[in-house]
Design brief:
The complex is a heterodimer of chains A (109) and B (424). Chain A has 109 residues and is mostly beta strands. Chain A has strands at residues 7-10, 14-15, 19-27, 49-56, 59-65, 75-82, 86-94, 99-108. Chain A is built from no helices and 8 strands. In chain A, strands 2-8-7-4-5 form a 5-stranded mixed β-sheet, with no helix packed on it. A 3-stranded antiparallel β-sheet of chain A has the order 1-3-6, with no helix packed on it. Helix content of chain B is 28%, strand content 26%. With 424 residues, chain B is an alpha/beta fold. Classes of the chains: A mainly beta (109), B alpha/beta (424).
Amino acid sequence: MATELKTRVKVPSSASAGEVVTIKAMITHPMENGRRKDSEGNTIPRSIINRLVVDFNGQNVIDVALEPSVSRNPYFQFDAVVPESGEFKFTWYDDEGSVHETARPVTVT
Amino acid sequence: MTMNRRMFLGTTAAASAVLSAPSVLADGHAKPRVVVIGGGAGGATAARYIAKDSEGAIDVTLIEPSKAYYTCFFSNLYLGGFKDIEDIGHSYGGLAATGVNVIHDWAVGVDRDTKTVTLAGGDTVAYDKLILSPGIDFVEGAVEGWDISAQNAMPHAFKAGSQTELLKAQLMAMPEGGTFAMVAPPNPYRCPPGPYERVSMVAHYLKANNPTAKILIADPKPSFSKQGLFEEGWNTYYAGMIDRIGPDFGGANVSVDPAAMTLSIDGEVTNVDVCNVIPAMKAGRIAELAGVTDGNWAPVNAADMSTKADPDVYVLGDSAQQGDMPKSGFSANSQAKVCANAVRGALTGSRVFPAKFANTCWSLIATDDGVKVGATYEATDEKIAKVDGFVSTTGESAEIRKATYEESEGWYTGITSDMFGNAV
């Protein structure tokens, strides 16, 4: 990928113990499905984010396999229970082997 | 130009006669009188068509503070370097030559009981029919930290002219690798594709002159006009340069600090070099002062653009709450012709045709890469209703996109001569 990828997540900074919170996670990525052709008729090789993993304090929250039909800038929204203060860790896996990580802390009040 | 300065163009004697006349209405004087406030795509067109088609049977006065009018449409092309500022500037000499009394002053009040308009200079102008086409004003407090006094530090550039030139100067002065930020407006607003065409034009300039610079958009809207077309173009020409933060990630939770030149999105503060703040919009102030608005806009009847509040007061263009048409120069021009036809019919008994409207919004994404969206409309009892529409598609050939851009240039020449006449 010639251009840098941006990750963007939204996690509440605080929650009460056991509260269900909404989490949003996006990565900017063209998600080339491997079937398109360029203007010269050459196939554009597949290049997608193939997996997103979200962990909380080392415990897995979601583990998603992405397929070539997923559209550009894949965006996930899901609910999670926050049992204690800690950190959500987001990891995106690129076809090209690179891994993109970001993390957000949550304080239980 | 100072606020109170008043200028006459062309037919000075005729204009003075109107001004010095006492406030006598239709039954007391020879000719019915139409006053138009605002000399843009709606007002200039309406004034010109009524004057031209009534062939002297109606006195037409246009009140517009600016002596030179810069079109908001195509002003983004000036930012991108495709037009000079002179290319989008127009004078009112052609309208004066058509027989319109052009008064360069601010309208500061409307008395609907005595049917008079008060000017900042102190004079009053009497009307039988009043047409308001005052464009937009900004909703106060719409963007935390920004008000109109901050417009030099953080320009809106959504009224074309000196604001557009200021934004261009700031763009050109950006440090290498700097950040151009835009706070996009919520619906409804003037020129739905405008902010995104602007981003395209800014990116076009930066790619050639400052290629490591970034563009950051904070957007309260989940989606926007011609989004697929713009995003395809941004990915093709300006990959990695443009970052748009929508409402899911805090794009509606924005504040600015014009002194510190910072933009805060969802609490995350970013230093920016240029900040183009386009606040939420409402009808031009004179529509509010005339008492014909309901909320932020002026509700109108679709058949003739008369207001719901007063059958002798009409509102055109951006200020009107009319139904399905977008707030565009093309729409205002189209509504003005319907209105002019209806006003002439009411005052002189000329034939009134059923209301038909059309609009097209062209946008330029990069050199010779133009896209468009448009529709035709008809008047129903409730609103101006869309009949059918068209929009450019992603993946179109370069030939089609070039032809679309050339079509927009032809349209520009056409609409500006339709508004201002061909003289001067």
